[in-house]
Amino acid sequence: MYRLLIVDESAERREAAKALLNWAEYGISSIITAGSYVEAVDKAMDLPPHIALVHIRLGKYKGYELAAHLRSIGFHTAFCIVAEENSPELIRESMRSGAQDYLLCPLSAGEMRKFLERAMVNRSAPAERGGEKKELDPVLGKEYASFSKVTNKILLLVRSDFRASPTLISIAEELNMSAKYIGRVFLKDTGMKFSEYLMSYRMLEAKRLIVNTQEKISVIANMVGYVHLNNFYTHFKTYFGVSPSALRNNISAQAPVGRGISQGEKHEI
Q1: pTM for the full model?
Q2: CATH number, domain with residue 54
């Protein structure tokens, strides 16, 4: 039997989706709903969905970001992105995230049946996917499956919101949990304080942008959440052992990627 997750800020659309079909005909015995990105992460981590209908607009997030982030930590959910606009860019980003379909509102029962039929055909049980490459956390170099649910929730929120200076307190408030508790769990699972992990994630993202784009260093610093350029330069050089400008000037040297400060050593490029 399957679980269906419906994610939409609109309670009216959530209820309409629930009433769209006789879901039991497709083996769906449980329907879970969420009204925000954070609530969806929270519920998905507790009860992993087999199928998910996700609205494209979730406040400051996009529905395809939720799909991409859940798939990145090993979820094999069949995602369908739901939207009002038939935008080529949104469709393209949705497909890149691993979504299997992109349907327009109001949802059509016929189109939904087609999506479900495709999803059921394409779904593979986890045991059948044993040869699939495991996704590793970019900072810690460990499989997401090795972390607790609480830590995975935190990692998902960092991936989505690292530019906005999230804190343990703000994440704890969104998850309705104690900041001290999730901080202890995170440290036990990762061996890193949350602030260290956040900086490491930002540094790796900054390096990716420096290597793969022509954006100005000041723009990249802002893109990864730094307001003060001097702080960005200091953190980057401490982390990698070279300045952002020097890295860009020596891209052709094919420098190795640093493993993260959790390894207890300075990164060299």
Answers
A1: 0.78
A2: 3.40.50.2300
Q: Are residues 14 and 81 in the same domain?
A: yes
Q: Which of helix, strand or coil describes residue 220?
A: helix
Q: Which domain holds residue 98?
A: 2-129
Q: Is residue 138 part of a domain?
A: no
pLDDT tens profile 22-81? 999 999 999 999 999 999 999 999 999 999 999 999 999 999 999 999 998 889 999 999
SS3 2: strand
* Contact of 82 with 54, CB cutoff 8 Å: yes
Indicate whether 116 and 166 sit together in one domain. Answer: no
* Residue whose entry in the numeric block shows the structure tokens 């860009």: 248
- Cα–Cα nearest to 210, from 244, 246, 163: 244
Q: CA-to-CA distance for 66 and 37, rounded, in angstroms?
A: 7
Tally the C-alpha atoms within 13 A of residue 27's C-alpha that lie toward its C-beta. 11
Name 54's bridge partners: 7, 81
